[in-house]
Amino acid sequence: MEGVSTSTPPTLKNILFLTDFSDSSEAGIPFAIAIAHRHDSKVYVLHVVSSVTPEDSTVPVVAPIEEVEEGTFRGMRRLRDRFADVAHEMLIVRDKSVWSGAKKVLENTAFHLVILCTQGRTGKLKTLPGSAHEILQRARVSVLIINSLAKGRHDVGRFHHVLFTTDLSPESKAAVRQAVSIVHANESRLLLLHVMPDPNPNGSAAQDSVANVMHQLYELVSRGGNLPYPPRTMVRYGSPRERILEVAREHNADLIVLGIRGPRDRETSAYRRQSTVLNLLLDAACSILMVPT
Q1: pLDDT per residue over 235-247, tens digit each?
Q2: CA torsion sign, 33 to 39 to 40 to 46?
Q3: Torsion angle, alpha carbons of 157, 34, 29, 17, to 10
Q4: Looking at the DSSP assignment, which residues form a beta bridge with residue 291?
Q5: What share of the chain in percent tops pLDDT 70?
Q6: Which residues lie across from 17 on neighbouring strands?
Q7: What angle do CA 73, 131, 128 make, to 5 degrees?
Q8: Residue 113 pLDDT exceeds 70
Q9: Which of 22, 84, 199, 237 has an alpha carbon within 20 to 30 A of 98's alpha carbon?
Q10: Reported pTM
Q11: Could you tell me the CATH superfamily of domain 7-155?
């Protein structure tokens, strides 16, 4: 596979940050601010509340802060102060669901990144109960899922060990570009992982395949410039979900980067497979960046 040039970082002009004002959702604030500083981005802080429109209405109402309940007002004012050092806009949307409200916002502005938060190894999406998978499945931009319980990271908004997982398809190029950009911006260590099916009993063909895969992994970042640390490549056998989580634990990864491809149609088998992968990967004890390819 041809190497990927990262001389020009991915565009992150507009960032959508979703919040429910909980401590868990606010764990993503340092990352949103750090990314905004590095990329000169504007952060749109979105809180979705229950619909006040008729049941058959599909048009959300963006409520002025003065008209919302006092708790929401206090929450937005507190967050507005937190984002004071970067360009930002506060949005309160009333709609039937979080996804419905977020969808309208995503359609009205060209966003390049969505940030939301989980809590712990269970992958419970505190920011978006009941609607998080809609965001993950349907958003056509990168989604950064911050694990609020990942230890020692969230006070500085940096990633120290980045694990990039790839199936070595041409579509992986978009995702590795994001991974290398993060490594440069955070002065992180980069680990590249490819998971293969269990080898044949004779093992000879498998060894040839491993050598070829290792070469391709190095080629992926060969045009990434001088990384802060030499990248490490790794090949594992077995279930992708199990091996990804295993390697993340072994190497203290605080961010997993992976490309998500396939149709967004909820009725397709590809959607069902993708949904299963998302549910499994949300067990990771670290944050995850999903890049559409």
Answers
A1: 999 888 889 999 9
A2: negative
A3: -130
A4: 259
A5: 68
A6: 45, 115
A7: 40
A8: yes
A9: 84
A10: 0.81
A11: HUPs (3.40.50.620)
